[in-house]
Design a protein that fits this description.
The protein is an alpha/beta fold. The protein has 16 helices and ten strands. β1, α1 and β2 form a beta-alpha-beta unit.
């Protein structure tokens, strides 16, 4: 999809399949908006034509043409399916190209997805995949044709150590992604319950709509059982080794400093539950591990990670699962749970 709205509008809410190739930039849109308010539509249109003309117009039309050449079946939209998408179509026609536009624009698309999400929750039940931290639930969700990754939609792993390197999407984008993922699953597997990972209402700074969270609270549970050492190994790989490599790739020369800050900040976020003395001890252990991580191949990080898993993550999980135990319909090893989900 070609989203011809201004960048500021796109940043406030968009669609995963859309690329922002604006008709007007933020400043141009602002000027045209003021003219429309003060002098009416025709005057605003005339100003828009003056602001986007000549080489600027040629470049923007060419970007649309290039996108259409690379994406067969592309469509375009503006905010409400009005003047901007109509004008974009006219300019494309002058260049010998055609691109359908979406009636009602982004507003109609957003309205459709929001209503779909509400209706889906009213008429369908979810299966919830649960298990202690480190059992690899998200990996299983990705393996299932009927799995929907809420953490992926939120760009956050749902824990203190699960913060992304970049930003989380805005709330509207988060909801749009969930709706689209549900659409895909229901289209390809209409008679199969969607499998979701056990999540709280908040995933980082994003929150599940209340009707969605309420429906999750009615779902049946499948629980992965895995021994502590195997879970610790998985967490060490994810929170330490893989995170270090991603941090270095993302920040370059500043990667070492950013990785150390990420670990310390993540630990301090759970200080209240750990207690002051335990946090102080774990920070010392963490700092020591950071100092020697290149000489011991990150092995020393297992100590502090083991403590927070045993003393923080595991008790919290057990407490939460106890409140949901009447909805647990299957327990087993990782492979057994995958097989059950595939045939339930």
């Amino acid at each position: 999809m070609i989203d011809v709205r201004a960048p500021v509008e796109f940043a406030g809410g968009s669609l995963p399949s859309a690329v922002n190739l604006p008709l007007m930039n933020n400043d141009e849109r602002h000027q045209v908006g003021l003219r429309y308010k003060n002098n009416g539509q025709q005057s605003a249109i005339e100003l828009g034509h003056r602001l986007v003309s000549g080489e600027t117009k040629t470049q923007r039309v060419q970007r649309w043409c290039d996108f259409m050449s690379a994406n067969a079946g592309a469509v375009m939209y503006c905010a409400r399916g009005g003047l901007r998408s109509q004008l974009s179509q006219e300019w494309l026609a002058e260049a010998g190209a055609e691109c359908p536009r979406i009636e009602g624009g982004y507003k109609s698309l957003r309205g459709f997805l929001l209503q779909y999400l509400i209706d889906y929750c009213a008429n369908n039940r979810f299966t919830i995949l649960s298990g202690m931290t480190g059992t690899g639930k998200t990996e299983i969700i990705h393996q299932l044709p009927n799995g929907v990754d809420l953490e992926g939609a939120a760009n956050h792993k749902g824990s203190s150590f699960g913060r992304p390197l970049d930003e989380q999407p805005v709330q509207i984008d988060f909801e749009n992604r969930i709706a689209i993922d549900l659409l895909k699953v229901s289209d390809q597997h209409p008679d199969t319950a969607v499998v979701l990972e056990d999540e709280s209402r908040n995933i980082g700074a994003r929150h599940l709509p209340h009707y969605f969270a309420d429906q999750m609270a009615l779902g049946q549970f499948a629980v992965i059982e895995m021994d502590f050492e195997e879970r610790l190994e998985r967490l060490w790989q994810e929170y330490v080794v893989e995170r270090y490599l991603k941090t270095m790739a993302f920040f370059g020369a500043d990667g070492e400093h950013e990785f150390a800050c990420y670990l310390r900040d993540s630990l301090l976020r759970i200080q209240k539950r750990l207690g002051g003395q335990r946090t102080k001890e774990l920070l010392a252990s963490m700092d020591n591990a950071i100092a020697v991580q290149h000489s011991d191949n990150f092995a020393s990080h297992r100590h502090w990670l083991s403590v927070i898993t045993r003393d923080y993550y595991d008790p919290m999980y057990c407490y939460q699962l106890e409140k949901k135990k009447d909805r647990v319909v299957f327990r087993g090893s990782r492979d057994a749970v995958i097989e059950w989900l595939q045939h339930s």
